[in-house]
From TrEMBL:
<protein>
    <recommendedName>
        <fullName>Ran guanine nucleotide release factor</fullName>
    </recommendedName>
</protein>
<comment type="similarity">
    <text>Belongs to the MOG1 family.</text>
</comment>
<keyword id="KW-0813">Transport</keyword>
<dbReference type="Pfam" id="PF04603">
    <property type="entry name" value="Mog1"/>
</dbReference>
<dbReference type="GO" id="GO:0031267">
    <property type="term" value="F:small GTPase binding"/>
</dbReference>
<dbReference type="InterPro" id="IPR016123">
    <property type="entry name" value="Mog1/PsbP_a/b/a-sand"/>
</dbReference>
<dbReference type="InterPro" id="IPR007681">
    <property type="entry name" value="Mog1"/>
</dbReference>
<dbReference type="GO" id="GO:0005634">
    <property type="term" value="C:nucleus"/>
</dbReference>
<keyword id="KW-0653">Protein transport</keyword>
<dbReference type="GO" id="GO:0005085">
    <property type="term" value="F:guanyl-nucleotide exchange factor activity"/>
</dbReference>
<dbReference type="GO" id="GO:0006606">
    <property type="term" value="P:protein import into nucleus"/>
</dbReference>
Amino acid sequence: MSIFFISVRESFLEVQRCNCRKFTQSDRHEDSIIHRLNVCSMSEKNLFGGSISCFIPRDFDDVSSFRQVPDHQEVYTNSSTDQCIIVEILQFETAVKDECIARYLFDELANENQCAASERSVCESKVLDASTPPRIGVDSVKSILVGDQYVSKFNEGSNAKNLIKVYLGVIRLPSVTSDILISVSVPIKINPMSSSRECSQHESQNSIEIGSDIFDKVFTSFRILNWGLFGS
């Protein structure tokens, strides 16, 4: 089953025209086409013990099956491309305005990854209309952000930083004092000094358009099935 909502998709088509490299003929070779088809091949995954669900590409692995993951996170990754999907439940940031929350969390993520202010940039950040998917069923504020961060994997140092395209979706739930962060990270340029260098052979599968496809389907398919997850 494939989920597609034009309202969010149109927003990210605008992003792709902003500060993004244009496709070349090499981007269109066979493995890129195959990967685009795999992105469309998604399955619904139950997260946080079945309390939340969303669609995840079938070629992504559940990181908790081979590494410990914090209780407030669900993490999926594609080992061939180093693409990563993270769903997090965070404490509601009362001091941060709705229109600023996506940038706030983008900067928090960058700081955690030792990405300096000069090594990060935002292409677009916007609050979505209430009617735009995902439809949560309670009062909520949804926003999206797309930006770039130069990040080294496993703290490998400044000489091994990769250019990562970061797609963020934030769902604010003031009634349960929670912010939900959905992030998709796609390596756009892999440093030859990085331990991810073997993924560079799959560069055509790490295009901005593919990252947008993945984020769109994950974010718009997000559902809360059990509100007891957030306590009474």
